[in-house]
Design a protein that fits this description.
442 residues, alpha+beta, 2 domains, ten-stranded mixed β-sheet, two-stranded antiparallel ribbon, globular
Length: 442
């Protein structure tokens, strides 16, 4: 029995389910916030500013208290610095609320500026690869430039419009939570009849940093000194999944952004920029490469060779949905041809590129694309999530972003919330730790 415990540790989260009442209450909070932002006044802005200030200060104090009880030196130094910064920001906003009131619209404008750059690069990719809807994307990009110009040169419009957009977002988020509550109260048979709908997800600039936050939580929760390498977080009802979403998290600037794979029919399928000779624009673009690999070998490679933590969300879907996903993957591979990394082409020599290391460890099978949206990889659009999202979307599993930008952080946030709720398709959660072993702290 002790050997089994050493192999994997089970954590029961039956007490952590999100109740329907809690979901409804959250919906009302978002709804009221959105309505108040619509009718923005100087007094209300002051209240928001003080609330944000108090939030930053409390968050900083809580992080400091958590850090005191942490034995991980690296976590301690990073947490203390972040906590001090949060507290200082909170104090600054209390004494200078006008800074927050003027800064918030400017941050929104900055977000639109970044979104404009993303659309420009994406438009270039669509035009170069002669993809469908490229002219529609060109029109949207031009309109985004016009909108950005208005925000920059008309400050009064920028302030008012920013709060209108934020108000719309909160109201839309409230509607999503109310619909989630209805789904929680709906039987599985009735749930299958519910038409697909758009889910409002976290803004991309927030969701992008979720993997980094999760990594921090793992490091805080786990004390690095023992031999546990797998954690299974159980629901009350034990249902075996027949599809898994693998979310990768790794220390470092690029690794903490995350990566997503899909596992079904005894193989992991992944998409990314794995041909290092083709990368450009600070490694954000390159030839799109898809690979298929054995799950056990792949996870072992990621944990031990790449120092990655992998969080697997297990889904229980119907056989009909599985067949649709299989057919969709076959359709995507119609435009693909087999590609070989350097270590597969040449028998002699040591090659350090990712594809070569992966092939040597797992004998993965690689593909490139002759045409289509997977021909070119772009980290902020046609990224690793694109393949997984298209496969799930084809079967009616509806994780959709309102702005078309879905990150690994978006996926983690969505599936983690679904896992903590009863009667959802997300039935399991497993954490595969990297080669540094760990135990739950008491």
């Amino acid at each position: 029995m002790l050997d089994n415990i050493k192999e994997k540790l089970y954590i029961n989260v039956s007490q952590k389910y999100i109740s329907t009442i809690w979901v409804i209450l959250q919906g009302f909070v978002f709804l009221i916030t959105g309505i108040l932002i619509f009718n923005v006044t100087s007094k209300f802005l002051t209240v928001i500013t003080y609330a944000v200030s108090i939030f930053f200060i409390i968050m900083g104090i809580v992080n400091i208290l958590q850090t005191i009880f942490s034995s991980h030196k690296k976590v301690k130094s990073i947490n203390i610095l972040n906590s001090i910064i949060n507290i200082l920001i909170g104090i600054l906003f209390i004494y200078k609320p006008e800074i927050f009131m003027s800064l918030f619209p400017l941050l929104f404008t900055l977000y639109i500026f970044i979104d404009t750059i993303i659309k420009t690069i994406t438009c270039y990719i669509y035009m170069e690869n002669k993809l469908k809807k490229r002219y529609m994307l060109l029109l949207r990009t031009i309109l985004t430039y016009i909108f950005l110009g208005i925000l920059i040169f008309y400050p009064m419009f920028r302030i008012r419009f920013t709060y209108i957009i934020v108000g719309v977002y909160f109201v839309s988020l409230a509607v999503t939570y109310f619909l989630d509550a209805i789904e929680l109260l709906t039987s599985k048979k009735q749930k299958n009849k519910i038409k697909k709908r758009i889910k409002i997800v976290l803004p991309v600039y927030i969701a992008a940093f979720i993997p980094k936050k999760v990594l921090k939580e793992i490091n805080t929760m786990l004390e690095i000194k023992n031999e546990y390498d797998k954690y299974i977080i159980k629901k009350e009802e034990e249902i075996l999944p027949n599809l898994e979403i693998l979310i990768h998290i790794k220390e470092g600037k690029t690794g903490s952004f995350g990566h997503v794979d899909i596992y079904m029919d005894d193989k992991v399928v992944s998409f990314g920029s794995y041909d290092e000779e083709s990368v450009k624009l600070f490694s954000s673009m390159g030839s799109g490469v898809l690979f298929e690999v054995d799950k056990e070998k792949y996870i072992k490679f990621c944990n031990r060779s790449e120092n990655k933590n992998i969080i697997s969300f297990g889904l229980k879907i119907t056989e009909k949905q599985k067949n649709i996903i299989r057919k969709k993957l076959e359709d995507i591979k119609i435009d693909a041809y087999e590609w070989r990394p350097l270590s597969q082409i040449y028998d002699s020599g040591e090659y350090t590129d990712y594809a070569s290391r992966l092939y040597n460890a797992t004998c993965a099978k690689f593909y490139k694309f002759r045409r289509g949206k997977y021909k070119t990889y772009f980290v902020l659009n046609s990224n690793c999530v694109l393949l997984v999202d298209e496969l799930l979307d084809s079967s009616g599993l509806d994780l959709l972003s309102i702005n078309g930008l879905i990150t690994p952080g978006t996926y983690y946030d969505y599936f983690n919330r679904e896992f903590r709720r009863k009667n959802t398709i997300v039935v399991s959660k497993e954490i595969y730790l990297n080669k540094t072993k760990a135990v739950i702290k008491k």
